[in-house]
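Journal club prep — side note

Before the paper discussion, L.F. wants everyone to see what a predicted structure for a comparable chain looks like in token form. Sequence:
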Amino acid sequence: MSDPWDLATAAHRWFNLAPDKLTERQRRVLKRTKARRTIALDTNADFTQALTFGQRLADRVASIGGSWGFIIGFGLVLAAWVGLNSLLAARAFDPYPFIFLNLLLSMLAAIQAPIIMMSQNRQALKDRLDAAHDYEVNLKAEIEIIALHDKLDQMRSQDMEQLIRRQEDQIALLTRLLDAASRPPAG
């Protein structure tokens, strides 16, 4: 009987592919399954360690800029700006229609939008890495479950063979006993 974890056998058994058609991911899963090694990783830790200072800063800006605290705080700053300039009237540093405030808001939006987009792109990349890793874990789990089913089927088959042999032995013994009992006594 061939080794079920031989690459050619495993490739055909689990993926219905020739070994040279396997992807690197499939090879990695088969190798780890054969070695009975885990495949689970902490993708968050790996991803976070690889971030540059600028990427961490962009993520922090995006998390602050996308929070209720920022929205409420910024709303209060805007209300104070408009209120103060309305009360000062003729001596206001940014009189109505608040052109300087519009300039500051436009500059803030021009800077904040690309930073948030960078953070979202990085989050999308992280999500793709998580999905790829989840696929590998699920694939390994599926292979392990099928392998367990195969082992159970094999054990069940062996148990059935042993049961049949025992029944045949019992039938033979009963036949001998019946033959002995049906013979007339010698004597």
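L.F.'s comment for the group: The chain has a mean pLDDT of 89. Keep this in mind when we get to the figures.
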